[in-house]
């Protein structure tokens, strides 16, 4: 239901983003432990102990859940889903979710 409400807010242009200083590393660990551990899939979290950024933690939690749930959909037995957080010296922060499931490739489509 929350996703339907979010979509309606986006369509109406009334989405409110409320960024606050958030420990993204702690948020990721909490989301994986509390919301995604029931999947039965091995999920490895890699990254710094702390990583403070200005984000809307409620909205970003949904981003994390969505990325990991997509990896779970394409999970193959014996593989590990990796959630990695990196923060560069220049302050750039990267979150990646990697799985070894089905591979998607870009293909060229000829237009007529």
What does this structure look like?
The chain has helices spanning 2-12, 24-36, 57-73; strands spanning 20-23, 43-46, 52-55, 81-87, 93-98. The model has no long low-confidence stretch (mean pLDDT 82). The chain starts with a helix and ends in a 14-residue tail after the last strand. A three-stranded mixed beta sheet has the order 2-4-5, with helices on one face. The chain has 112 residues and is an alpha+beta fold. Helices cover 37% and strands 22% of the residues. The chain has a single domain, classed as Heat Shock Protein 90.
CATH class: Alpha Beta
Distance between the termini: 41 Å
Helix content: 25-40%
Secondary-structure arrangement, i.e. CATH architecture: 2-Layer Sandwich
CATH superfamily: Histidine kinase-like ATPase, C-terminal domain
Choose one word for the global shape. globular
Read across the widest sheet, the strand sequence of neighbours is 2-4-5
Class from helix and strand fractions = alpha+beta
CATH third-level topology: Heat Shock Protein 90
Low-confidence stretches: none
